[in-house]
Amino acid sequence: MANSSKNMEQHHIESSPLVIEDSFEGYPLNYFNLPLHYRDDLKSVLIPYGLVQDRIEALASRIFSDLHIHIPEQLICMCVLKGGYRFFSDLVSKIQNENRLRNDRSLPMSLEFIRVRSYVNDRSTEAIDIIGISDLSSLNNKHLLIIEDIIDTGVTMVALKKELEKYNPKTIHVVSLFTKRRTDKKCIFKPDYSGFEVPDHFIVGYALDYNEYFRDLEHICVMKESGITKYKVQDGDKVE
């Protein structure tokens, strides 16, 4: 009975995001090796790279345990570019490791890539552009795992999932490395799997960008207001 309770507790921990409290301001920059060209634009390191990797490994194990039994067919892993490419690559690699380690059953996977644009400067917009699979009808009766970097308002993911549902996939699961705890409005979408729940800061690093800057940071960092102003898109400019 004790072992059963322990297993249930472990299941709960693995299924829930690691919560970064509002009171945590991050680690001082001078404890980390950061690119010189960004140091004046950052306030702190919110989540070090090593912790990101450990959390992705736990997510991969959880996803494999949940899906390899219930999905006998191929799982389509769909990367939401550009911000999701690092998370996508590391997560898929770690799920592949689970395939090699488990002897009872494996989880066949195929890979797809789409682009969804919804950010201008530091704000998510309701209008989205979706670029990617040429024949969306190929998703009919398939199992999808959408792999996203961050869910902020949830508007983008709600729109994306609604669009994909038109093509009648058998199942859709969503995993996001980060979900943001908004102070101005409630997030309208909850992913099936989430790595971290973070405060309402504008974060960059590990392929999360601000107008195409900061993707080359390894750690997840909080931006200064001066940095947000410095890299802000001016009227008439367009960021792809």
Please describe what this structure looks like.
- The protein has 5 helices and 10 strands.
- Helix 2 packs across helix 3.
- The longest helix is centred in the first third of the chain and has 22 residues.
- A hairpin with a 2-residue loop joins strand 4 and strand 5.
- The radius of gyration is 18 Å and the shape is globular.
- It has one domain: Rossmann fold (3-Layer(aba) Sandwich), CATH 3.40.50.2020.
- With 240 residues, it is an alpha/beta fold.
- The strands form 2 sheets. It has a 7-stranded mixed sheet with strand order 1-8-7-6-3-4-5, with helices on both faces. The chain has a 3-stranded antiparallel sheet with strand order 2-10-9.
- This is Hypoxanthine phosphoribosyltransferase.
- It is found in: Cytoplasm.
- Keywords: Cytoplasm, Glycosyltransferase, Magnesium, Metal-binding, Nucleotide-binding, Purine salvage, Transferase.
- InterPro entries: HGPRT, Hxn_phspho_trans, PRTase-like, PRTase_dom.
- It comes from Adineta ricciae.
SSE blueprint:
Elements: H1 2-15, E1 18-19, E2 42-47, H2 49-70, E3 75-81, H3 85-101, E4 109-120, E5 123-131, E6 143-151, H4 155-165, E7 171-180, E8 193-198, E9 203-204, E10 220-223, H5 225-230
Parallel strand pairs: 1-8, 3-4, 3-6, 6-7, 7-8
Antiparallel strand pairs: 2-10, 4-5, 9-10
The CATH topology name reads: Rossmann fold
| Radius of gyration of CA atoms, rounded to a whole number | 18 Å
Overall pLDDT confidence:
84
Number of domains: 1
- CATH A-level architecture: 3-Layer(aba) Sandwich
- Give the termini distance in whole angstroms: 55 Å
Order of helices and strands: HEEHEHEEEHEEEEH
- The number of helices is 5
**How helix-rich are the residues, as a percent range?**
25-40%
